[in-house]
Amino acid sequence: AGTYRIAVIPGDGIGTEVMPEGLRVLDAATRRFGISLEYEHIDWASCDYYEKHGQMMPDDWKAQLSRCDAILFGAVGWPEKVPDHISLWGSLLKFRREFDQYINLRPARLFEGVPSPLAGRKAGDIDFWIVRENTEGEYSSVGGVMFAGTDKEFVVQESIFTRRGSERVLKFAFDLAQQRAKKKLTVATKSNGIAISMPWWDERATEIATAYPDVKWDKQHIDILCARFVLNPDRFDVVVATNLFGDILSDLGPACTGTIGLAPSANLNPDRTFPSLFEPVHGSAPDIAGKQIANPIAMIWSAAMMLDFLGHHGGKEREAHDAILAAIESTLKEGPRTGDLGGSAKTDEVGKAIAERV
Amino acid sequence: AGTYRIAVIPGDGIGTEVMPEGLRVLDAATRRFGISLEYEHIDWASCDYYEKHGQMMPDDWKAQLSRCDAILFGAVGWPEKVPDHISLWGSLLKFRREFDQYINLRPARLFEGVPSPLAGRKAGDIDFWIVRENTEGEYSSVGGVMFAGTDKEFVVQESIFTRRGSERVLKFAFDLAQQRAKKKLTVATKSNGIAISMPWWDERATEIATAYPDVKWDKQHIDILCARFVLNPDRFDVVVATNLFGDILSDLGPACTGTIGLAPSANLNPDRTFPSLFEPVHGSAPDIAGKQIANPIAMIWSAAMMLDFLGHHGGKEREAHDAILAAIESTLKEGPRTGDLGGSAKTDEVGKAIAERV
Ligand SMILES: CC(C)[C@H](C(=O)O)[C@@H](O)C(=O)O
Ligand SMILES: CC(C)[C@H](C(=O)O)[C@@H](O)C(=O)O
Predict the structure, then answer these.
(1) Which of B227, B256, B285 corresponds to the end of one domain?
(2) Which EC number(s) are documented for this chain (chains A, B) (predicted)?
(3) Position in ligand 2 atom list of the atom nearest CA A76
């Protein structure tokens, strides 16, 4: 397999604090399992870069990143410096779209040692995956304002779902469900209210489902689905959703497992025509930045998902992934823990503890 | 004030089971406080009607309902008979839009006697209002499919926000927050991802806010906002949201207070140019229909909100509203309770218990 070339983009805020811990644990795991990584450290795709250059990234960003096998990403956004929609559409959302990372894969899992905000739920009760469409849908760049500044003013933004874009994410989700023990898939929708695009999305799901007779699937409207994440989180196995609904569900799911400080995500280009991107679900969190109190586990887990994807879910990369996961699990159980989990450890103490266990 | 004329639309499924309990409690309250209601019982706006007539309502539905002072509504929808988007756009969503019921007001409140799915939350900890825009936004009727049946197929649905529509719901929410003790308002947004319409919505909020210097307000992205409903529900006071985000939050909020079987809603035309509509948040629930196990409290509370709106939040109508609320509270504390609250009472037993207490 040779050497993997990894673009390392810390970004803004706590992104710059959790990234060193991700690398620390990667170093430990690659040393142990004999995997060779080469890092390309990137200081753009940050609001500081924007303040100096008037754009989030250099013009040749795509060429630079295309040379890499994967991107390890911290978090972008610092609204006091740059409005969020400019910083995000100028970096992360551009990567997702231009590198065709059409799957955003995010787990919701309740670990031992992590108190759930839900009453009476214990480790093992919550364990499901959210498969989010990641390139189109509600996150469109089509629309605009008319009659600006008058009483008649309105703004239009289009949601655009392609057959190809919908089918491929649905297939990915059905495939994943098929590989799991429960073989259950929930399709998030809102076809009772969003009456043009969502019934069409339901049809796509119904068509794709015919190829998976062994998968038990149903569709649930996003409103009641969110309610059920709280009321019956044990019922879910794999949940597939459009871009916006997946965004919502993949913050809510992890919240139900105690903290969004644990949740990793994989922005996958399954066809491997461009690098995939791995990042924590939490953002740059300016309010707690600079204090070394951020939980680095989401970042570390994201790094593990990266190894697993690079190794095609097998080989020594899979072993390294599993070893990191096991180290995360035992650290959650035994400590040290950051403040969001009721502990008082610093970001790097948790990173070191996990690296040692690996 | 004379006599209020009320259109009574049970609709489908458990709508037909909870409606009699709403009327039972209304009868008790109006008798006690000397309020005169005249009911117009309506058997259309149901899927059974659709099966017979090929449409959800007679052609003169608008004239018929416009003669009424308010609409008391059960629930519509029975997907095995009629697809949801047809039954809903043929009734409820038509009312909201054509009667310009631009506010959908929904409480999230944790009562004594109701176990919360959230760990360690007790009565009083959760008590906030969701103000949902109810006529435009993501629930548009503009869009369509192109290249159907080919590889190039896509569907477009537009979200359309007008200045007038956005300003009036934001004003309503700021007004409501201003009247409350905490004077706090949270504006739901997603301006980091939905980069055309949502930054525009944020601007409207920022403008309106200048007229309310005493209201503490902030904006929160819908993904993290949903997470915070679970993690910190005690922090909210009034939450204002677009049509879709309000839909999601007003199922999630009540779920955090134990059951969506309690949550009422008021679809208000505050200008009173057309009747307003009052309905439970829960839907027709075909899975439990016909068993007399549905919780009637959301329906009964909706009826109370109707009285309060009819009386302009004062007079004997306000007293009747308060008496119903008190009867709901003591019934939740002392029983009887339906299955969703861990009891085994039938729908009508709960209705009778509340009526007696009134
Ligand atoms: C039935 C459906 C169309 C409706 C909505 O989405 O508005 C419902 O969920 C509600 O919240 O009143
Ligand atoms: C930062 C934001 C644009 C992003 C999104 O909405 O996709 C984030 O919430 C996420 O989930 O990765």
Answers:
(1) B256
(2) 1.1.1.83
(3) 1
